[in-house]
Fold these 2 entries.
Entry 1:
Amino acid sequence: MLIKCLNTVLYRVFQGWLNIDKITNNTSKIYEHNIEETMKEALIKEFKDNNLLALSNNSNIDLEVSILNYEEGNAFKRWLMPGWGATILNVEAILKENGNIIATSKINNNIPAGGAYTIGAWRQVFFDTAEKLVEDIQNEYKQKKWLVFQYFD
């Protein structure tokens, strides 16, 4: 029974049944850019690219993302001294089915060095983080599936 339930969840998540439920800014800071919208845009792109985004709100699998830390950084400072002026984004994601947590992920991402080619890193860090988040969630599901099969074999 457990294998059947888990396989159903796996199938539904990996066949486009996930909603991006809410994105919250938990940094207690106000930024020049709307970081919640930028994170949402990046997640939508990444989940669509991987055929994981629900086409309607009928899904019972929801993703909640909390932005824990964000530093916009500065390309000129990164060019002068790597590490100074780093762009930083730390997020925590919770995947829920019918309100129950089925997966979690914490991504710490940064762009610590670079010069002019890192102008716009404030935005790119969101897309890089979304890519890592999708990969992390997929890997967690694959690992759980393997563990369940190992347990029942």
Entry 2:
Amino acid sequence: MHKILALFFVLLFLTGCNQSETVHTQKLNGKWNKKAEQKFEINITDAQHPKNIIFVVRNNNDYPYSNLRLIVNFSDLKNKKTVTDTLNYVMAQPNGEWIGKGFGDTKEILFQYKLDYQFPANGKYSIGVIQAMRNDNLVGIEDIGIKIETAKP
């Protein structure tokens, strides 16, 4: 009886997982060099469905700024076309309180990059992220990630 109950919970867990979402993360361990591009290679197999591309940033209390500037290189690896964007995201409220969620010193925040983005075709794409702050070695960023999810109609 216990085995059947355990199997039921495993199946329930697996069917409850969101199959239309993937997250890729790069660990920075609290220090991000200005020349260190964080690359994420993604494989799109259902380009007919629009996607949301969201950055996931985890920072700690050592982060010295209230914003984060990023240079993003978005590349279609098939046709070698690259689009570069310069982005500025707010990470703290005017009183200095972090916007992200989490316990202790580390907070996680989601930043929208492209919403309802229609990939031109199935295939491999690359998203490179460079920090564009004034520090050569930016402290306080634990890791950065990218979340790709199917947009809801």
